[in-house]
Amino acid sequence: MLDTLHPFKRNYLDRNGNKLHYVNEGQGEPVVMVHGNPSWSFYYRNLISALSDKHQCIVPDHIGCGLSDKPDDSGYDYTLKNRIDDLEALLEHLDVKQNITLVVHDWGGMIGMGYAARYPERIKRLVILNTGAFHLPTTKPFPLALSICRNTALGTFLVRGFNAFSSAASYVGVKRKPMHKEIREAYVAPFNSWANRISTLRFVQDIPLKPGDRNYELVSDIAASLTQFQHVPTVICWGLQDFVFDKHFLTEWKQRMPHAKVHEFNDCGHYILEDASDEVISHIKDFIAETQVGTVEVKQADTVKQESVA
């Protein structure tokens, strides 16, 4: 069933003895799609199918996720810098160094924009989907569920013992209608044991909240780099019912990327490419087409609000 739902050739890159799986479909200008936690390249399957006729679609599974290896802490340091290093190594391996359309979701925003901060000249477009690339907005309380996962033994037990994080996300991450059973099972399939759920927990534990936390300065640097991309064509598609990446994060993106075209979905949640797949893919395809030829004149934000569907 998984091969039917995720029907792409499996490619692997060796990263210090760990196999990093990635999708590499189609030819043309590259579209690099970076997933977050607790998802994997499966999240982008419909976008890959929609774009690979004209574009080279590159979609890695982070170490510990999807079809990549899932080493313990002695085999991999599950931290933001290594995630960015992995993405850089993959794109270097594929010789992808220009005209990149970067698509980011969840932790993929921090990882993808961390890469972009290193090589801003390589980024042609940005597609931002319910994510962040800056510290928790001052107006946003840190969600209790994340605090339990991040800071308590109970959280470790629930995430690694019962797959609570990945399983819960497959239910609460969509709002228009529940995921079909086989889709939900595909999301959680890679995280099928205590050992294989290590990255799900380490991602949450790696969230820096205050100076002195590991990666706090790196996140500060990534946030500061965003001013470099205010000339880069950007589209934002946002599910407003996301319990983490909610209106507070969207407001911050609008302030930092005032030129972006914004599509808000009042009735959608975190997994915007599940809730509103057809609409979001259409917006992305139109955005790429509109910015394909010649010099793009950056315009003021054009906010398009999608009304809730009863």
Automatic annotation (TrEMBL):
<dbReference type="InterPro" id="IPR029058">
    <property type="entry name" value="AB_hydrolase_fold"/>
</dbReference>
<keyword id="KW-0378">Hydrolase</keyword>
<dbReference type="InterPro" id="IPR000073">
    <property type="entry name" value="AB_hydrolase_1"/>
</dbReference>
<dbReference type="GO" id="GO:0016787">
    <property type="term" value="F:hydrolase activity"/>
</dbReference>
<dbReference type="InterPro" id="IPR050266">
    <property type="entry name" value="AB_hydrolase_sf"/>
</dbReference>
<dbReference type="GO" id="GO:0016020">
    <property type="term" value="C:membrane"/>
</dbReference>
<dbReference type="InterPro" id="IPR000639">
    <property type="entry name" value="Epox_hydrolase-like"/>
</dbReference>
<feature type="domain" description="AB hydrolase-1">
    <location>
        <begin position="30"/>
        <end position="275"/>
    </location>
</feature>
<dbReference type="Pfam" id="PF00561">
    <property type="entry name" value="Abhydrolase_1"/>
</dbReference>
<protein>
    <submittedName>
        <fullName>Alpha/beta fold hydrolase</fullName>
    </submittedName>
</protein>
